[in-house]
Design brief:
Order of helices and strands: HHHHH
Strand content: under 5%
Structural class: mainly alpha
Radius of gyration: 19 Å
Length: 119
Amino acid sequence: MGKGKRGAPLGNRNALTHGFYAKSLTEAEKLELNKARTIEGIDDEIALLRVKIQALIANDPENITLLLDATGTLARLVRIRYRLSPKEEHGVKEAITKVLTELALPLGIGIGAGKAISG
């Protein structure tokens, strides 16, 4: 065996088309994944997550665990996008939690009651 690089060439999508992951994606998802690979940055992911958080608040506001996970993920994405320090990320998490709490309280939902966001 030569000393060349092992494995598929850079950009090869065999795993997506024929491999392990292909089994878990529909044809539509495969097409969407191929389109998503052309997008640089995470602005679309941040926007989508914000929309999903709003939908979660509207449709399943009692799902505190999912809300905390989603807002934590949003804070991490914002940190990455704007290259924030861990301390600044914590401030983003606190701000998101405050907004969620202010939205939830008028609706009679106990978001964050006795729950702390770790990070």
